[in-house]
Amino acid sequence: MADCRRLVTEEICRLFDHRSEHRDVLYRLILEYPLREGKALRPTLAIATCRALGGDVEAVLPTAATLELYHNAFLVHDDVEDDSMMRRGRPTLHVEHGVPIAVNVGDAMFCLSLKPLLDNVEVVGLGPALRILETVAHMTRESVEGQAIELDWIRNNRWELEDSDYVDMVVQKTGWYSFIVPMQVGAIAAGASQEQVNELVAFGRELSVAFQITDDLLNVRADPQEYGKEIGGDLWEGKRTLILLHAVRTTSASDREQAIEILARPRPPSDRVAQVQDLLDHLVTVEELTPAGRGELEGAVWGGSTTVKTLADVQWLFDLLGRQGSIDYAAGAARRYADAAATRLDGLRWLLASPHRAVLEGLVRYVHERNR
Amino acid sequence: MADCRRLVTEEICRLFDHRSEHRDVLYRLILEYPLREGKALRPTLAIATCRALGGDVEAVLPTAATLELYHNAFLVHDDVEDDSMMRRGRPTLHVEHGVPIAVNVGDAMFCLSLKPLLDNVEVVGLGPALRILETVAHMTRESVEGQAIELDWIRNNRWELEDSDYVDMVVQKTGWYSFIVPMQVGAIAAGASQEQVNELVAFGRELSVAFQITDDLLNVRADPQEYGKEIGGDLWEGKRTLILLHAVRTTSASDREQAIEILARPRPPSDRVAQVQDLLDHLVTVEELTPAGRGELEGAVWGGSTTVKTLADVQWLFDLLGRQGSIDYAAGAARRYADAAATRLDGLRWLLASPHRAVLEGLVRYVHERNR
Fold it and tell me: B71 lies in which domain range?
């Protein structure tokens, strides 16, 4: 994975860094997240699949770099949407440069992805280049639909959701662009048949769900009282995870009501508004304002809601997960999806036994090891 | 133009409205701005150019609809970036649905533009479809670079700018995607030669600058005292227009200093924060806080800046434009660009005399009539 990351980072720099004319106002910012060294999961999947089919790394590299760029574009905009403060150990782009610049940098990353995919005609030939373009067009549709569904759940505080709703959303939002399409474009670049490309859907689907549940579990492994917002961010955000859906579904009616009420509360917003709150607490004593006046003021500060989630709220949710056995439940589900993925991968005999195929097997194993 | 708007709106609906599964969470929102009936300038240019070359409207319609979708995607994100409240007489998307959903809807519009451009292979054949894709890829690069330059000027309060800086930025930010590329894709869809397609650049460049200066002039035609923020929005935003650049460049050193200081102040932010300010004024009397304490509190509310632009500030800027003759100066420049555009259009003899060519001639005339 480290090799793939290095290759892809070099390719992204090659694609964009030479445009020195506007380097400081745009291209340096485009390279900001990619240079913060993520896991490079998508390029790794693309390169491993291509090579396990006997293809050259050069054939897939521009496409792999493009997928990494799409991924980072989604991250830039996700950070704006969630008002996240940190990304890969540094302040997020909109925190450093403001929302306008961050939105435009994300747009630029989406828009600039088209060119390398068109240049692919020179790299893999016309037919495969068009198949890759069609595959990416489909991928982006799935991603934005999945994101829209999740945002809709949050906005309307929807919790009457089945596990299958969660699974469908995860496959749309991250399955296609993080797992299925990276493998598909690797296969296309290696000259795979359309049947082989189609067979990767089922494997990628199972693997993506196994991964997402594992990710969700890592997020609630530790007690929020001990770690504050670093751990348990999903509870602060009210994210619909398989874990939380299970807890809400299986608990008593009164606990369910309380859980949904807590989850509807916004999390404490970003530093600036928190700072206002601190100042209000500091400068305006309770005696100087009537309770109604203070409530009105706080309501305005918090955007119409007078209550935000507190650490006690999040601790209560965390304890609920424990009481309902939701963490064990989700770990079991992750194992089952990983098993299903392993079975699917076994069926893909045309991915030749090699260190490249072993990368895919290693991802399945990772889920099992994390969820023992 | 009304006919083009109707055709393109129908085409956009055809492309997206049938996806009923996610209609409520995504596709209804994608159609929101396009259905608010803009001018349909870009589709009109694409269709007029195509038909003036003897092409069919069907050949260019999917591409024209895609350009309109790109345009509306930029509008959705621009509204987030500028925190604009209204768009075409109704609240902006992020005001109605929140920033997260608005950012995702804009992303969806960008991402979903790829598919109709790939389907163009069926409509215009492989060669022209690929040329259109290359043209659009280039267009989006110019747009995001232009936007990045303008955001950089605002962020760093840069005013030591020449008219040529303004012209270059305008051509990049709006010239390519609003004028040059719509005509280019119309020409490609009609089977024009690459030489003909290239000749459209110079005409579109002159026309776009003439249009943008005219737009900027309309924005400062009326006295801000009379119209509040509806008119003079560019002054509130501190937008680098040819008009304002002239005024800042030609005035006395002390007025220049004052102008730049005013322009560096943020405009009063959106309703929610203004509401906090009102409440602070209402609930916290001056006696209850020391001046330092109040300044600290306001600074936090306004994001670190203790001063925002006032109506008096904007009136002062408006009066400066009058004193310096900057409005006449810019109107003269608009006329010169329109003249240059007319000369370029005269040279394009291969655009056949027809109602379609007359549309292009009418746009040049519009600039002259507005800036008499």
Answer: 1-136
